[in-house]
Amino acid sequence: MTTEATAKSDIRDPGLAEEGVRRIEWAEREMPVIRSIRERFAKEKPLRGVRLAGCLHITTETANLALALRDAGADLVMCASNPLSTQDDVAAALTVEYGIPTYSIKGEDDETYYKHLNQALDHRPQLTMDDGADLVAEIHRKRTDLLDDVVGGTEETTTGVIRLRAMAKDGALKYPIIAVNEANTKHLFDNRYGTGQSTLDGITRATNILWAGKNVVVVGYGWCGRGVAMRARGIGGQVIVTEVDPLRALEAVMDGFRVMPMLEAAAIGDIFISVTGDINAIDQHHMEVMKDGAIVANSGHFNVELNIEALKAMAESSRQVRPFVEEFRMGDGRRIFLLGEGRLINLAAAEGHPASVMDMSFANQALSIEHLVLSEKSLTPDVYDVPKEIDEEIAKMKLAAIGIEIDELTEEQRTYLSSWETGT
After folding, report:
1. Per-residue pLDDT tens for 155-201?
2. Do residues 363 and 397 touch, judged by C-beta distance below 8 A?
3. Which of 7, 100, 219, 413 is packed most tightly, with the most Cβ within 10 A?
4. pLDDT at res. 420
5. 242-263 pLDDT per residue, tens
6. What pLDDT, on the 0 to 100 scale, is given for residue 81?
7. Is the dihedral of CA 94, 99, 100, 104 positive or negative?
8. Which CATH number describes the domain made up of 3-186+353-401?
9. Which stretches of 310-402 are assigned E, i.e. beta strand?
10. What is the pLDDT of residue 373?
């Protein structure tokens, strides 16, 4: 037991550590890329002595990333990036068994959430890892005294990248950030296959509904929306997509989904899933026409995608009917069921993405953090993509880990592709 880390941390119950260790080890079985990176990091120590604060979902998969960074020599602390996403046994294991101070309790209120962010920032990090950009925003708004120490950071999710690009555009961003979300080995797999599967898992665990035959409204057809729509159709749902982007809407049509305005979909939907990264994607005028029994969930990073305050104001009464299911009864007798307080339903009511897909996402985090240390003096404040060579190396490592081989170009083919003189 690591008493120093326990003393620094704020977790629900240190006694859960043994259970957390077992679950972390189970996830590690499905994370061969992170395992390989951890082994190299343990030998080379590329982060020796570097102070690092990670604001991520405290899950079994995140724990394996944290262990790789610890073994790389990082002086690491962790806090939660969402009040409902913490797995308390994992937070206990990180603290008690692995010696990583952790500030994270499932169900913490907003005051505790920001207290935990600031406890992590008291570590005076030189590197930040974020999922939603709350840590970066807190540094820039309230902890500007820390900016001189920060070398760079990474950002895990679409919502956070949107915020950070806005900061960079306004000249407000004071240190370089690598947008892990933009890596092909992240958004093409984590966002699509991870979010697609885990979102349906969370809704199913919360409600025990039968999906077959239900009208499932997917709000937003980015990579997460594509994944949710694909999986909902696969389980028998009648999928409707709503969009504001004409290209994405056209793609959804070509993929075989019904596409219509949100107000029209609101009147016929049985299950609504928001994955837009924007505010009030499901708004009051939509909820006013929803039918009795409509289920509303969010799989975007922040619960602002749903106008929850409007829903509360519309309702005559509300009650908790199941864990993570709140019933709002309207004056006309209609009931709307809100899942997981409108927060990430895949983490609020389930376990988040499968470890196999997070293996690639967190490999990007680990190698991007290493890249920031190696590039400390060459990057100016801005939002950067993951270097292509890192992205491709992770894909190669994943293929090798699952026993897949692919072809290579011949020298003749390379010459042809690089030449303009050879035609038909």
Report:
1. 999 999 999 999 999 999 999 999 999 999 999 999 999 999 999 99
2. yes
3. 219
4. 85
5. 999 999 999 999 999 999 999 9
6. 96
7. positive
8. 3.40.50.1480
9. 317-322, 325-329, 335-339, 383-385
10. 96
Residue with tokens 């010459």: 415
Dihedral over alpha carbons 74, 77, 83, 87 (to 10 degrees) = 80
Residue 305 tokens read as: 């995608």
Domain limits of the chain? Answer: 3-186+353-401, 194-348
What would the pLDDT profile of 30-55 be if each residue is shown by its tens digit? 999 999 999 999 999 999 999 999 99
Q: What burial letters (b/e) apply to 44-65, b meaning 16+ CB within 10 Å? A: eebbeebbbbbbbbbbbbbbbb
pLDDT of residue 424: 61
CA distance 419 to 239: 46
Phi, psi torsion values for 59, nearest 5 degrees = -125, 175
The pTM score is 0.92
Task: For residues 372 and 117, give the distance between their C-alpha atoms in angstroms, rounded to a whole number.
Answer: 22
What CATH number labels 194-348? 3.40.50.720
* Helices (H), ranges, 77-190: 88-96, 110-121, 134-141, 158-169, 184-186
pLDDT tens for 66-85 read 999 999 999 999 999 999 99
Element (H, E) at 293: none
For 45-97, strand residue ranges (E) read 51-56, 75-80
Residue 132 in tokens:
């939603």
Other Cβ atoms closer than 10 A to 375: 15
Would the CATH topology of 3-186+353-401 be identical to that of 194-348?
yes
